Amino acid sequence: MVEGLAFGFAIYLYTRLGFKLSIAISGAMLVLCYMAIVITSDPYVFTVLVALGMGYGSGGCGFLTILETWKHFSPQWKGRIMGVISAAYGFSPMIWSFVFSFLCNPTNAEPDIKIHVGETEYSLFRGYVVHRAPRVSASIGLLFACIFALMLLIFPPSHTPSTQTSLMQSIVSHTSDIHHFESTCPSLKAALRTWVFWSLTLNMFCSITFGVFIVNAYKNYGLTKYRNDQLMSTLGSVAAGLGVAGRILFSAAMDHMSFKVLFGGSMLAQLIAAATISYALETSVYLYGLCVAVGFSTFSGVFPVFILESNHIFGNK
Amino acid sequence: MSIIGQSFTLASLATILINSVLGQYQGYDWCFRLMTILTAVSLLLTLTSPKRFPAAK
Q1: Out of A184, A194, A210, closest to residue B38 by CB
Q2: Is B54 part of a structural domain of the chain?
Q3: Which of A4, A212, A313 sits opposite B53 (nearest CB)?
Q4: Which of A19, A127, A140, A160 has the greatest CB tally within 10 Å of its CB?
Q5: What does the pLDDT look like over B3-35, one tens digit per residue?
Q6: CA gap A172, A175 in Å, rounded
């Protein structure tokens, strides 16, 4: 939720403060979160820190990097730039999932607690895996601080947009290259009166929920059958890699295919995956991995499609 | 842009609710049944939409 809300607020900060300062704020939130969760023992404070720090840090960084990088390249390259950066955004879980698992659980110890809530069984860790987690979190925080500092040093000087209009013009110029639209929606109120708005919003909501759920729950669900932490981390990393491929393919396909064909095809694949994932888990880890990969791919792919399609329809509002 | 951000926020909220309520008390299988229905709705909306949406005026 915070990640979703952070998109809008991060753009507001970007228009007022420029790229480097706004990305530094997002980065600082992320780094401080990793540091602060080490010293707190209150579960409520922990939850708030993770929700705010990681949510804002993640949501604030991703989209701003795309917007800023667009300004340094010609318009013909904007689609490919969006594909590369959003692919890197999807690629990072593939790396960090391995790093976290290796640092916290280097001997691949099995979960040592089972708890039942309702019909669901949860496999959790205790002992040395849990004791290593705070130090790993602090180390990752320091590493992220170094990465952000390096990025701020090497990124070319920013041209701060003077108004939100100039920023939105830069976004619209991208979509107009692709769709050649001339009409724009005059206001949000006007958009709310159109069936297209509600159709697209409902479609976005229905299509992305499976991906959001899979990204968050594939490991716990997989551990109910295969009690192997590193197997699940590997599966998630491979699925994230396929998600990256999906993001690049979706971005490239948008130049050549209609929304209906592209999105209809991906939703058909997602429908099959959602309907068969329980059977796949019981049958084979490869089939389960395939269903998870479809979830990661569509979750990654629908985002650029909706960004461009909503801009095509509603313009800079 | 607001469509993207708010729909993503709504989907995240729905996922939290599904995971914490349906997932914990009914099991993951029920979650995936619901996901199948939601994806079917999305597919239906996509198939019944025009090949390219007209720009809003």
Answers
A1: A210
A2: no
A3: A313
A4: A19
A5: 555 566 666 677 767 766 776 667 788 888 888
A6: 5
- Separation of alpha carbons A304 and A248, rounded Å: 10
Show the tokens assigned to A192.
């709310």
Q: Is the ipTM of this complex over 0.90?
A: no
Lookup: tokens for A121: 């069984």
Tokens 């109910």 found at: A224
Residue B32 lies in a domain: yes
CB contact under 8 A, B1 and A307: yes
Of all residues in chain B, the one with the smallest CA distance to A11 is B1
Contact status, residue A277 vs residue B27, Cβ threshold 8 Å: no
Cα B14 from chain centroid (whole Å): 8
User: Using the beta-carbon criterion (under 8 Å), do A7 and B43 form an inter-chain contact?
Assistant: no
CA distance B14 to chain A (A): 7
Determine the length of chain A: 317
Total structural domains within chain B: 1
Are A288 and A277 spatial neighbours (Cβ–Cβ below 8 Å)? yes
In a domain, B57, yes or no: no
Distance (Å, whole) CA A214 – CA B15: 10
Q: Residues A168-198, buried b or exposed e (16+ Cβ, 10 A)?
A: bebbbebbbeebebeebbeeeeebeebebbe
Residues with Cβ within 8 Å of A138's Cβ and at least 6 positions away in sequence, in order, are A34, A35, A38
Residue A32: burial class (beta carbons within 10 Å; 0-12, 13-18, 19+): middle
The residue extents of the domains of chain A are: 1-70+105-160, 181-317
Q: Please give the Cα distance from A57 to A221 (Å, whole number).
A: 27
| Residue A40, C-beta contacts closer than 8 angstroms, at least 6 positions apart | A46, A49
Query: 3-state class of A123 per DSSP?
Result: strand
Tell me the β-bridge partners of B34.
Answer: none
Domain hosting residue B16, numbered range: 2-46
Tokens (6 digits) for A102: 């290796």
Query: pLDDT digits over A144-188, tens only?
Result: 899 889 988 888 765 544 444 444 444 444 444 434 433 455 566
